[in-house]
Specification:
Number of helices: 3
Mean pLDDT: 82
Radius of gyration: 27 Å
C-alpha cells in the first residue's frame, strides 16, 4: 500500500502539469538549422544594437557624412509619397 501511495504521489508531482507552448508547433521547427538559428539570432540582434547602430549614428551625422562617405537612404517609394488615408476614409 505504501508503494502505491508513493508511486501515485510521484505521478501527481511529476506528471500533473500540462505542457503548453506559446504557439503551435510545426515541422519547420524540427529542421537542424533552426537550432543553429536559435543560437545565432540573439548574437546577431545584440551585434546590431550594440555595434552597428552606434556606428551608423556616428557616420550618418550631417557634419561627418562627407568624411565617411555616407549618403542618406533613398525613399522606398521612389519619387512617390507614401499613401496616407484621409480622416474621412478611416
Amino acid at each position: 500500500m505504501r508503494r502505491l501511495l508513493i508511486g501515485l504521489g510521484l505521478a501527481v508531482v511529476l506528471g500533473g502539469g500540462v505542457a503548453n507552448a506559446h504557439d503551435a508547433y510545426d515541422d519547420s521547427e524540427s529542421h537542424p538549422l533552426r537550432l543553429a538559428a536559435y543560437v545565432a539570432y540573439p548574437v546577431g540582434y545584440a551585434l546590431e544594437w550594440m555595434v552597428m547602430r552606434p556606428i551608423h549614428f556616428v557616420v550618418s551625422h550631417p557634419q561627418l557624412e562627407r568624411v565617411f562617405g555616407h549618403v542618406p537612404h533613398e525613399s522606398p517609394f521612389g519619387g512617390y509619397e507614401a499613401y496616407e488615408p484621409s480622416d474621412d476614409e478611416r
